[in-house]
Structures are given as structure tokens and as C-alpha cells.
Amino acid sequence: MDRMIEDGIKVDAIITDPPYGMSFQSNRRVVKEKFDKIKNDSNLIWLEDFLIKSDKILNNNSSLYIFCSWHNVDKFKQSIEKYFKIKNIIVWVKNNHGSGDLKASYAPKHEFIIYAHKGRSLFREKRLSDVMEFPKISSSKLLHPTEKNVDMLEIFVKNNTDETQIILDPFMGSGSTGVACKQTNRDFIGIEIDETYFNIAEERIEKHTTQERLF
User: 202 is in which domain, residue-wise?
Assistant: First the structure.
């Protein structure tokens, strides 16, 4: 992101699934055996710096979608609203629930997506409910432990950008946002710190186009 700022590169939306600051580790055996813990997920010391850079990179009248969980949604919200206007906290209802404390807590079946504006970003398509039901990726098909549903990401892409605009995902993971962009004819910039996931994302996105920009 520093390089983008130095080069004067601007984008029209950020759609991203960053670490939640909760040292996430799936309790599902198949997922736990397949993936290591997510890097830099032990705290949120990166969040403020990320938002400052996001503000510099986003064009005026642009949008920001940031996934998070209930564990730290208050911290995400407080930090985001320093720099952007929060419009919704979208509830993503998944088709199956997580594990957690099997004897003393309700089965978790949702995540949050904080939707915010820099300026005012008008919908290109129809207005939807702030509760969205999309299936979670099955454990056997996961390319990343927190991989997101591409169909849901396509809604965000199409609602807040035109085909001439650019979307950034600074926590690219396995490249689901990039796939959503390419399937809707948007340009995409992706950044990923983990080389293994970077390579997975690059391969996935290259199946859709050869014009992506990856850092």
C-alpha cells in the first residue's frame, strides 16, 4: 500500500477480509489439519495504519467493505468511523455453524461486514437487505481457512463500482475478491503477505484473465 501511495495509484473500492485479531483456528478437523493459523491474527495493531493508507488510496465517493467477527466488531467499528462513514454492518448468515463451546454458547452461524463510504458511493444495482444468506465454502474445497463466497463478493463489486473502475483487496488470501472482480469485468489489485496463498490466488485469477496486478 505504501508503494501504491508513492506511485499515486488510486482505487474505487476496497473489499477485504483481514485478520480478525482473535488468533483464529478452526475446530473442524479437516480444516485444522489442512491449514496453519492465519499470520498476524493475534492483535489489531495493524488496523489503524491500514485505514490511514486506505483513506489515501481510495478515490472520493468510493466504498469500503471489511469482514470481521463479533469478537472485535466494536474495535473495527471505532477505528473505521474515524476515517470513513459507516453505512451498515451487514450480517452474513452462513449455511452451517461453527463449533465453539458446545455446552455453553449458541452455535455461531454468522459474520459481519462493515460497509463504509469515503464521501458517498451510490448503488449501481438494486438495494438489498443488510442480512445476506450465502453458503460457506465446504471444508473439502477450501483454499484458505477463511475463504469467502464469490457470489456474495460479486454483489459488493457490482453495487459500488463500474466496469471502468478498480477494486483493491489488501488481504487477498486465496484471491476470492479478485475472482469476483474478473467475473464482473473489473480491474483488480491484490496484496498478500503469505507466499503460499499468493501463489494460489495468482493461479485462480489467471484462469480468468492475464491482466491482473498482484503485489
Answer: 2-214
| pLDDT at residue number 144 | 77
pLDDT of residue 168: 98
pLDDT over 70 (residue 29): no
By CB atoms closer than 10 A (0-12, 13-18, 19+), residue 90 is buried
Segment 171-189 shows an average pLDDT of 96
Q: Mind spelling out the 3-state secondary structure of the chain? A: CHHHHHHCCCEEEEEECCCCCCCCCCCCHHHHHHCCCCCCCCCCCCHHHHHHHHHHHEEEEEEEEEEECCCCHHHHHHHHCCCCEEEEEEEEECCCCCCCCCCCCCCCCEEEEEEEEECCCCCCCCCCCCEEECCCCCHHHCCCCCCCCHHHHHHHHHHHCCCCCEEEECCCCCCHHHHHHHHCCCEEEECCCCHHHHHHHHHHHHCCCCCCEEC
Q: What is the pLDDT of residues 81-115, one digit of tens each?
A: 999 999 999 999 998 776 677 789 888 899 999 99
More confident residue, 100 or 12: 12
Give the predicted TM-score (pTM) of the model.
0.89
The 58-68 sheet, strands edge to edge? 131-133, 85-93, 110-118, 58-68, 11-16, 166-169, 187-190, 213-214
Number of domains in the chain: 1
The CATH code of the domain that includes 201 is: 3.40.50.150
